[in-house]
Amino acid sequence: MTPAQWEALLYDWHNTHRLRRQRDDTPYWTRLTEPHESVLVLGAGTGRVAGALARSAERRVTAVDLSRERLARIPRTPGLHPVCGDMRRLPLQGPHSAAVIPYSTLQLLLTPEDRERALTETARVLAPGGSVHIDVSESFDSRTETDWQLSLAETCPEAGGPVEEWERSRPHADHVAIEKQFRRAGRVLTEVTERWVYHRALDLAEVLARTGFELLGIDRGYGRDSSPHRLVYHARRRH
């Protein structure tokens, strides 16, 4: 198995045992995008959100991710179309009626220029009046420096048994670097480093205004006091 395949497999395994405990986000996205016939999901990964949106209604959902290996793990669902591409240079034309940028994807773009380019591209492929919904987290802002610690231990049948996820945090001026090791029977299967920009460094309302959007509102969490550290920005393409 290649390093990219290990990464995709263990990304999916992590989501199964960690993010899918946070079950209120997929019903939230489903309700939010219900009126839309053509939905774009940027940073779709292995399809956790995009798959739920495609299953909820007869419509076209386009799932964009940089990783072909992650996209290859998306279950085949009618109406769901995986596309390998960079959200800063979308290999798509419009018009889409809505775009979702779920679960802190925008916070993986480390420079203001990259974030502005991604939202400019999002505006380009949306219809006039189309909406964008961006999920970010405040929790990275409070991350402190830590040494290696066990964050998850669960069976992964595709890896041959129990897998452990270990991580340590290294805060920087505008982002936190979270290093991860995935271990099986004492052997490191793969290592990744994720760099998450702090919410306070995003200036998201200003960037939306510069890229042709009107900010409509901000939700805290997904309703019913779920995940209050998360903020979902809602905006509409002006022209």
Automatic annotation (TrEMBL):
Return the InterPro entries for the record: Methyltransf_25, SAM-dependent_MTases_sf
Lineage of the organism: Bacteria, Bacillati, Actinomycetota, Actinomycetes, Kitasatosporales
Gene3D superfamilies found in the cross-reference section: Vaccinia Virus protein VP39
| SUPFAM superfamilies, per the entry | S-adenosyl-L-methionine-dependent methyltransferases (SSF53335)
Q: Name its GO BP terms in alphabetical order.
A: methylation
Presence of the UniProt keyword Oxidoreductase in the record: no
Specify the Methyltransferase domain's residue ranges.
39-130
Tell me where the signal peptide lies. Answer: none
Query: Source organism's superkingdom?
Result: Bacteria
Q: Name one GO molecular function term.
A: methyltransferase activity
Protein's name according to its UniProt entry: Methyltransferase domain family
Identify the keywords attached in UniProt to this record, alphabetized.
Answer: Methyltransferase, Transferase
Report whether Methyltransferase shows up as a keyword of the record: yes
